[in-house]
């Protein structure tokens, strides 16, 4: 647990913001951390030390289609945080750019526990 907690602290110190997502009964179900980086959102969703999903998604997307990630990893929390933090900066030579997998559960705007009211044509 100490290593997993230190990785969560590392995310916070790297500028990630956190959301505590609750189930229908109001109990904590999972935690999401996210950070916008040069046109992309790096995010991680975790349920426990052994179950996490991390990804990088374009910050702007077609709301009529499921979100697609340019990079995604599923596995233990510690490994997911390490891989996410080791990703090259968007726009750099080795940064992933090709859409690969559907990742709607990592799309911050669709996962927020409230609705965003935006004027027509606005970008969230």
From TrEMBL:
Domain of life: Bacteria
Name the record gives this protein: Uncharacterized protein
Species annotation: Saccharothrix hoggarensis
């Amino acid at each position: 647990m100490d290593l997993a907690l230190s990785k969560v602290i590392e995310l916070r110190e790297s500028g990630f913001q956190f959301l505590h997502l609750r189930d229908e009964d109001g109990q904590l179900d999972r935690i999401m951390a996210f950070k916008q980086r040069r046109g992309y959102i790096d995010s991680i969703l975790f349920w426990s030390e052994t179950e996490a999903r991390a990804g990088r998604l374009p910050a702007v997307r077609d709301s009529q289609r499921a979100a697609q990630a340019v990079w995604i990893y599923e596995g233990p929390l510690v490994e997911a945080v390490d891989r996410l933090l080791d990703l090259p900066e968007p726009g750099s030579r080795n940064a992933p750019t090709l859409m690969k997998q559907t990742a709607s559960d990592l799309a911050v705007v669709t996962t927020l526990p409230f609705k965003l009211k935006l004027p027509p044509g606005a970008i969230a």
